[in-house]
Write a structure and sequence with these properties.
This protein is mostly helical. Strand 1 and strand 2 form a beta hairpin.
Length: 154
Amino acid sequence: MMVDIAIPLKRREIRFKRSIAEFATWATRRDVVTLRFMKATLNYAIGTRVRRAREAAGLTQEALAGSIDRSKEAISNIERGINLPTIDTLQRICDVTGINISFMFEQSPEDRDVLDLKTKADILMSKMNVSELRFIVNMIELYNNHKSEVIASE
């Protein structure tokens, strides 16, 4: 069975015919990618705030880890966005660093800008094939390796 699918965009809509199974597979795959991106973004945001709170309190990763009965590696993984702390761990970090837990969930204008840009990049990259993605990754790596030269020439 084929269905006529309309996706509204700002000024027009895209129409295409797909089977229900094909559309369900496409929608599910897109949702999984979006959820992974959202999780990674949350991990990064919380990790950055944990690092800022720790540094503002004048603590090392080892000192913070000892204060909340966690390992230095656990704190490092949280700060780098690899792991998301539990609410209990987050509350203990806030207690030790002397900040309110709401700080961990506030969104500054800079955070929104970063999130908007990452979302746009995610949407654009989701439409690329593997060779195009490799090209983009290579360009980003090239930029990062020569960032100081690019900024100095501006």
